[in-house]
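A reminder before we start the practical. When you read a complex entry, don't treat the lines as separate problems. The point of joint prediction is that each chain is placed relative to the others, so the output describes one connected object in space. Small molecules and nucleic acid strands, if listed, are placed in the same frame. In the example below there are two entries. Take a minute to note the order of the lines before looking further.
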Amino acid sequence: MESDDQLALLTDLYQLTMAQAYFQNARMEPATFSLFIRAYPPNRGYFVSAGLKDVVEFLEGFSFDSISLDYLHSLGLFADDFLDFLKNLRFSGEVWALPEGRLFFKDEPVIEVTAPIVEAQIVETFIINQINLQSLIATKASRCIHAAPGRAVVDFSLRRTHGIDAGMKVARSSYLAGFAGTSNVRAGLRYGIPVVGTMAHSFVSSHESEIDAFRSFVKSFPNNSILLIDTYDTIAGARNAVQVGQEMAARGQRLQGVRIDSGDLADLARRVRKIFDAADMKDVKIVGSGGLDEFDLAEFSAAHVPYDSYGVGTKMGVSADAPWFDIAYKLVEYDGRPVLKLSTGKVSWPGKKQVYRLRDGEGRLTSDCVTRREENIPGAEPLLKKVMAQGKTAAPPPSLEESRKLFQEEFSRLPEAVKSIRDPAPYKVEFSAALKKLREQVARQAGGAA
Amino acid sequence: MESDDQLALLTDLYQLTMAQAYFQNARMEPATFSLFIRAYPPNRGYFVSAGLKDVVEFLEGFSFDSISLDYLHSLGLFADDFLDFLKNLRFSGEVWALPEGRLFFKDEPVIEVTAPIVEAQIVETFIINQINLQSLIATKASRCIHAAPGRAVVDFSLRRTHGIDAGMKVARSSYLAGFAGTSNVRAGLRYGIPVVGTMAHSFVSSHESEIDAFRSFVKSFPNNSILLIDTYDTIAGARNAVQVGQEMAARGQRLQGVRIDSGDLADLARRVRKIFDAADMKDVKIVGSGGLDEFDLAEFSAAHVPYDSYGVGTKMGVSADAPWFDIAYKLVEYDGRPVLKLSTGKVSWPGKKQVYRLRDGEGRLTSDCVTRREENIPGAEPLLKKVMAQGKTAAPPPSLEESRKLFQEEFSRLPEAVKSIRDPAPYKVEFSAALKKLREQVARQAGGAA
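Here is the predicted structure of the whole assembly.
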């Protein structure tokens, strides 16, 4: 179905044809590529870094197996000596990167890879693929968290994520950005994320009546049942849940909560809350779900709709309002020479770089400054860390829990206006005088205008 | 990274909690679930079926391994006898489905699974996940093909697809719907799809000058070079390509084409075409790429912009204007009793069903009719085939090439107005009198209104 085999082939064909041209022309000097996002999608003013762990694992294990080499040979495009070269190719480079869970902004380098140009080039496709997806989802998920203060938000998206890998990475990225758990059981195993779940409409409709279904379910889960009450009529469903909850109480058990998944979610939550409160069941929680996104959650928060938690699915899991980033991995240096792409509207910053983060006296983020790698800004924090050297991990990566805490701390220090889920204020990102000067020089040499 | 292990856990936790409740309440009768799409996204009037092959493979191989069972045990939710039951659980059911590459319409069943309710329920998440993604992309890709008649369209999306599995399935689904190839090398190996590629901006910018880069590349690929001409200035790039093409001609070689990836793509194609025509290089092809989708392609087709082929990436690979379907997998029968969900706005059709396709005298599609499974419409084609019986494949699936041909044949017979990429006309889907009567009966019994 979807194995790890031939992962080195998970690249665009042109990476390999370019590699052969480099190889045959003996152009094997070190190159630096820089990954960054060129523009904010609508209603975005920041990004959350995610995906680095998979990138580092991929680079450490990078190699072409015999099935891959046989396939490449069969294409009739590649010379034998080049295929021999690929057979022994490993990633031997250096990687500087922003740790997972950190905030970043447009035009800031997130990953810079320095390696012999063939190595740094072939891995482009995989690196973009994973950083794009995981940062996209972490960013979207952080918006949901921000829109529902004091409420637990969980990931219900697996059925609508784009495939298996996305299902796994969405669970992980949303947890990184503050989600409380996921319905994805395999992600629970793989990443140690709490798994959560209630019941489906089919459970109710497979029984002769709704109350039979509720009684049947709580028999199996006397301590943690959340009953889905909207299969037929939500208000009648709430009354059935009250009755079952009272039956449980008489047995010394407790109904944990109910879920509403369709209809006028705000109105229904208020009416259902009243029904439980009137029955002296104030501790029964109400979970909301059904096509929710951060815009709904913000509306419910502002209107004090009495949901205790939310299941967020499709629209988070595919980042529905912005399903991709304008993300690029650009050559910025070759053989010690800084380089630049000048295509219309797609200007990049040449050379190896660093990003510094500045805070005010209370620790609040005030601005970033992108510099040449060797520059230093006293008192500011350099964000890019050396995560790989000579093809190996340079330092053990933080755990998912550590990255999650890192995110929460930093996100709490980002100005509210930048976090706004509609029309956020721009965050200040400056470029150092030395970097600007370098870009002008390179642009002049290339005969274009920066 | 992304192995096949523990694939049975790729489900929502509630599938397993419901399974335990069914098991402990001895509710193990056969259930039928029906998969369908509830609504068209904007500008869609049909869907293309894809993903069935993966669903059948998943069902055939379905089982919980010891790592999965140990993990489930660790959650403290599941009883030992239920975990023993899961250990021996295999999929033993029957599956009726629409073959890959066929067209379908909203509210029509695409897959109907009949199996003991636990089996049919646990596999829901995976089935929706794969059919949603693959049909989403096949549908989007078919729109690109329709918008660019007479032009080859290839998949350049791997770097922006949502993860690894999506990258593979997008390559396959777009090929199924008529794409000419993919840049994804691993998909080429796995699915036998033609792989295609040109060169990247980094290849040009890593050289001291653009013409050096072009010369270096054609040295390695004298017979199939497509030069990327927009790294600095597209018109100057075209002139450099002419010069290199003339040098190649003098050596008895031939420049295959050039690619334009940024700027005013329509204007640049016309100017570049003139440059090559004036140099008597009429057979040099022009490839267009850079953020294209079916709307751009339709505009270029209408204006006769002289592109010979297109590389379509991100917007196809994530179905950017409609990144998910309102797709559902609903219980329609349990223990021989047809059932219905009545939640607001989410009414389903009860019972096992069949879909019949009607054509006119010239073979053009005129309408579909959804019926109860056992009905027959003389002269009309029944679309759902029995693809699995007793948990095993009932007939060898068609090859990808066969499905691709099937799609092309059928798509050519779908009325133009339904294929329109903007505001398509609705296609007529009727529901048989017997099916309507059944729904009324079930709704009455459930005490609601259909």
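Discuss with your neighbour: The longest helix of chain A spans residues 124-147. What might explain this?
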